[in-house]
TrEMBL record:
<feature type="domain" description="Mitochondrial splicing suppressor 51-like C-terminal">
    <location>
        <begin position="308"/>
        <end position="487"/>
    </location>
</feature>
<feature type="compositionally biased region" description="Polar residues">
    <location>
        <begin position="67"/>
        <end position="81"/>
    </location>
</feature>
<dbReference type="GO" id="GO:0033617">
    <property type="term" value="P:mitochondrial respiratory chain complex IV assembly"/>
</dbReference>
<dbReference type="InterPro" id="IPR032717">
    <property type="entry name" value="Mss51_Znf"/>
</dbReference>
<feature type="region of interest" description="Disordered">
    <location>
        <begin position="129"/>
        <end position="156"/>
    </location>
</feature>
<feature type="domain" description="Mitochondrial splicing suppressor 51 zinc-finger">
    <location>
        <begin position="129"/>
        <end position="204"/>
    </location>
</feature>
<dbReference type="Pfam" id="PF13824">
    <property type="entry name" value="zf-Mss51"/>
</dbReference>
<dbReference type="GO" id="GO:0005739">
    <property type="term" value="C:mitochondrion"/>
</dbReference>
<feature type="compositionally biased region" description="Low complexity">
    <location>
        <begin position="37"/>
        <end position="46"/>
    </location>
</feature>
<dbReference type="Pfam" id="PF20179">
    <property type="entry name" value="MSS51_C"/>
</dbReference>
<feature type="compositionally biased region" description="Polar residues">
    <location>
        <begin position="47"/>
        <end position="60"/>
    </location>
</feature>
<feature type="compositionally biased region" description="Basic and acidic residues">
    <location>
        <begin position="144"/>
        <end position="153"/>
    </location>
</feature>
<protein>
    <submittedName>
        <fullName>mRNA processing protein (Mss51), putative</fullName>
    </submittedName>
</protein>
<feature type="region of interest" description="Disordered">
    <location>
        <begin position="28"/>
        <end position="94"/>
    </location>
</feature>
<dbReference type="InterPro" id="IPR046824">
    <property type="entry name" value="Mss51-like_C"/>
</dbReference>
Length: 517
């Protein structure tokens, strides 16, 4: 906000002007006042404000002190930046302890942030030493899992928690300094990445102002969005210039969710049927139907009565297995709406963890005949977007025909890191996957790593072989998060949000007629 002058200071300034200004200056001021009179309504409103302040004040109210000027401009911290940092780390920001960009590296145990010190205690209590001399604590889930190295005959030591912090990355990774030195070559593969994660987490908890978390509003239709990569997208969407790699990692950590959806569905998508474009002919058919609804032609719509036009129903994007993405600031999800200024969008978060990090919205609505599954509706998001959250499984709601019928022109499924082939979560998708294929609408999936993506593809191929068509060839997501994340239960498990991307759909069978008929 800009500076202002209170009534008391204004009176002091007027007295100084009367005492020092010459008579000619006073006459010119009087002439100017006669030429530009103040509106009586403004005087009444100004007087009513003064009277209301004087009547509403009480002797117990604190008065202004000499240490704080009453004419100082009012400044408030950005609520978007604070909420974004809280979402990314799950901890509050301490505005008193400000860390400079050249002082961001601290070991987790000796961190100036209480949240990171608490995180270090959690890692030490739950993470196990990855040295191959220890016995296995669980079955290895991938060849890159540190537990896969503990199958030799030398693994005779009992499991031990990770209490020793590497001096180079500051993360508890081994049980002792001896095991850290003995296995230093294996740790060196991810040590630099862990240090980067350490500094990024301290940056989020540094208490600094985050200008990168201010997002632009609606964009003119004449401006074309370039989605070749992150740089061209941020530039053509008129984001504030981000010249720091760390700030770029922080902002892409959240924007990867709406931008991953938009990069696939948009008519200017970087994925095409050309050589190396990864889009299959079947994918072009399905996405062309959605793009027809997302990019309607101009019809001369206006804000007056003559400009009223009929609109197509909103495009429904079902986000299944929603977790952290459902608690993102709504300004982040509005970036998806701004990519389709003439379309209506309806985001539907479905999953038992869809209310994670949203404790302020409890208790959930009661299940009534009008709202049988207790959905939380947010319909005041710019007028063209609506968000609904259901804490339930999709197959349970689909059996009740709650969302049917599905239209390939208006519906799409999005699965962020679903873990379709993960041993701990695959059983939850066995009943859902056949129902998704029956809808014949696009299903977009992402994965943390290449191994995670390939495991999901193999599981889908095993369960529904020959019953689905690949719409988008598996590969690295152009709009993946540039920030690496750390698994607190296994510090050597480093992943990236929405690293991989692929899409599929239930197979469509075309009727073939013989010539005799």
């Amino acid at each position: 906000m800009t500076g202002y002058t209170c009534v008391q200071c204004l009176q002091v300034l007027r007295q100084g002007v009367r005492a020092s200004a010459p008579q000619a200056r006073l006459q010119s001021l009087a002439t100017a006042r006669r030429r530009s009179p103040i509106s009586p309504s403004f005087i009444r409103s100004f007087g009513s404000q003064r009277n209301s302040q004087s009547l509403g004040s009480s002797p117990e109210q604190p008065k202004h002190t000499h240490s704080q000027s009453c004419c100082a401009p009012k400044s408030s911290p950005s609520s978007i930046a604070q909420r974004a940092a809280h979402t990314a780390t799950g901890a509050s920001v301490n505005p008193q302890a400000v860390l400079k960009p050249d002082n961001l590296f601290h070991s987790f145990s000796n961190s100036p942030s209480p949240a990171l010190r608490k995180r270090a205690e959690f890692i030490k209590q739950n993470a196990f030493c990855p040295h191959p001399s220890h016995q296995q604590t669980r079955a290895a889930v991938s060849p890159h899992d540190p537990e896969a190295r503990k199958t030799t005959d030398d693994a005779n030591l009992p499991p031990a928690h990770s209490h020793f912090e590497c001096p180079d990355c500051g993360v508890p990774v081994y049980c002792s300094e001896g095991h850290w030195m003995d296995d230093f070559e294996a740790h060196l593969e991810i040590c630099d990445t862990l240090r980067q994660i350490n500094e990024d987490d301290h940056d989020l908890n540094s208490g600094r102002f985050f200008p990168e978390f201010h997002y632009p509003g609606p964009q003119d239709d004449n401006f074309v969005i370039n989605m070749t990569n992150w740089d061209t997208y941020l530039y053509t969407r008129e984001f504030a210039a981000i010249n720091d790699d760390r700030s770029m990692r922080q902002v892409t950590r959240m924007l990867t969710y709406p931008q991953t959806i938009g990069s696939v569905l948009h008519e200017l998508s970087p994925y095409s049927v050309r050589s190396g474009g990864r889009l299959t002919p079947e994918g072009l058919k399905s996405l062309s139907a959605l793009r027809y609804s997302l990019h309607p032609p101009k019809t001369g719509e206006g804000i007056d009565v003559k400009g009223l036009r009929l609109k197509a129903p909103p495009v429904r994007i079902f986000i299944l297995g929603a977790r952290a993405e459902s608690s993102l600031p709504r300004d982040v999800w509005l970036q998806l709406q701004y990519m389709y200024p003439r379309a209506l969008l309806h985001l539907i978060f479905i999953g038992p963890e869809s209310m994670a990090n949203r404790d302020g919205e409890y208790p959930l609505p009661e299940r009534t005949p009008e709202n049988p599954f207790g959905g939380i509706v947010e319909d005041r998001l710019g007028g063209q977007m609506k968000i609904t959250t259901y804490v339930d499984y999709f197959h349970t709601m689909n059996k009740a025909q709650y969302f049917g019928p599905f239209d390939p022109y208006l519906d799409c499924f999005m699965l962020f890191h679903p873990g379709l082939g993960h041993p701990a979560s695959s059983h939850e998708w066995e009943e859902t996957l056949p129902q998704l294929l029956e809808t014949k609408v696009p299903i977009i999936c992402t994965g943390y790593t290449q191994w995670d993506l390939e495991r999901d593809i193999n599981w889908v191929s095993e369960k529904c072989r020959g019953e689905f068509d690949v719409l988008l060839e598996p590969g690295e997501n152009i709009f993946r998060s540039l920030r690496w994340d750390l698994n607190d239960q296994d510090p050597h498990d480093v992943s990236c949000g929405n690293w991989g991307l692929w899409a599929f759909r239930g197979k469509r069978y075309e009727a073939a007629f013989s010539k005799e008929e």
